Amino acid sequence: MALFKPLSDIGHGLWKAQIFTSALDLKIFDFLGNGEKSEDEILESCGIKNHRGRDFLNSLVAMDLLNKDPASGKYSNSESTQMFLVQSSPDYTGLFFQFRGRVEGNDFAHLTQVLKGENVKNKLTDFNAAYDADPNTPKFFGDYMKSCITFVSQLLPQRLDQFWKSVTTFTDIGGGTGYATIELCKAQTHLIGTNTDLGQCKPVYDEYTSALDESVKSRVNFKSLDFFKEEFPKGQDVIMMGNVIHDWSDEVKFMLIKKAHDALESGKHILIYDFLIDEKNPKNTLDNFLISVHMQTIATGNQFTSEEITKYLTDAGFKDIQIVKLDYNESAIIGTKI
Ligand SMILES: C[S@@+](CC[C@H](N)C(=O)[O-])C[C@H]1O[C@@H](n2cnc3c(N)ncnc32)[C@H](O)[C@@H]1O
Asked: Which residues does the entry assign to the active site, renumbered to this chain (predicted)?
């Protein structure tokens, strides 16, 4: 049976993820944020009305998401859920997992067809069309992207402190809501940042920047830019692309890196942050392989190794390539134009 357990764990992965996602939807972890509660209190407050809701709660206990006091039978958050899944916590990332469970779970339903090279509907190949098709998409997608880079945006200014101290201006290409630009300018108070994206993202950027302190707001701005049709802004110290090139084919990846190169002057920098994969030791980067397969499922892209990104940058005309690990699965890759 020991040999069966790893298979059972993987085979039940979708069910576990759905139970986890429903717990987030029902705000179970928020409700337990202030301390332990009885079964009846949870069922009543979180609106669980089916005939045996406690099986759902005990599943969460069995998955180490909740603790259960053996004497009182009361439930409480685990250390992880208390830290990351209670909305009032500074480290809250519940939205990220809710999106992962819903958006990405559905996309993965087509994986077998994708692997067989069959056409699947709704592959993301034109963000302009996707944004125009539903006016809610820029906000929905922007919030999702923001939830994906919550940690990275805080670590980018910290881990690369000396790098940022040596520059003043940067432009983020495909920056979406502007969250990375905002966090960089908050933490590095000399920086002046331009967030670029398709024009449909401007209202979401405005929402994200509306409550900013004037000392930050005066140093960030939005520029509408379609990276397929337009050149990148010139005169910048840094051109950044975070989780952007992974959406696209190798040809488009290289085209975007080359556009950054063409816009920069000699001695200035490109900074890419993305999820590097380790093909020599796949176990080192399981999450990033999952993202790579996901990119192939929803778009035309894929993740890449440190060797591959180094080659793209070198071929485009960058030197001194540095790779710095940011959070547990994202890395920053920096190159300097020759
Ligand atoms: C995966 S998101 C990354 C967002 C952000 N940089 C981050 O790290 O979360 C890709 C971004 O590329 C933008 N994008 C897609 N096509 C674009 C185009 N043709 N021109 C400019 N931006 C585009 C999308 O709107 C989206 O914000």
From this structure: 246 (proton acceptor)
Q: DSSP secondary-structure letter at 282?
A: G
Q: Is 95 contained in some domain?
A: no
With tokens 């940067």, the residue in question is 170
Tokens of 157: 């200014």
Model confidence over 243-279: pLDDT tens digits? 999 999 999 999 999 999 999 999 999 999 999 999 9
CB atoms within 10 A of CB 83: 14
Q: Shortest CA distance to 43 belongs to which of 64, 63, 61, 57?
A: 57
Domain that holds residue 79: 5-86
Residue 14 CB neighbour total at 10 angstroms: 13
pTM exceeding 0.90: yes
Percent of the chain with pLDDT over 70: 99
Residues of the chain with pLDDT under 70: 103-105
Q: What is the Cα–Cα distance from 160 to 155, expressed in whole angstroms?
A: 8
Which residue ranges have their beta carbon within 6 Å of ligand 1? 127, 145, 148-149, 174-176, 180, 197-198, 201, 225-228, 242-244, 247
Q: How far out from the chain centre does Cα 184 lie?
A: 16
Token readout for 244 is: 């952007």
Query: What is the amino acid identity at position 288?
Result: N
| Residues 184 and 116 placed together within one structural domain of the fold | yes
Within a domain: residue 97? no
Counting from 1 in the atom list of ligand 1, the atom nearest the Cα of 152 is: 8
Which region, left, alpha or beta, applies to residue 147 given φ > 0 means left and ψ of -120 to 50 means alpha?
Answer: alpha
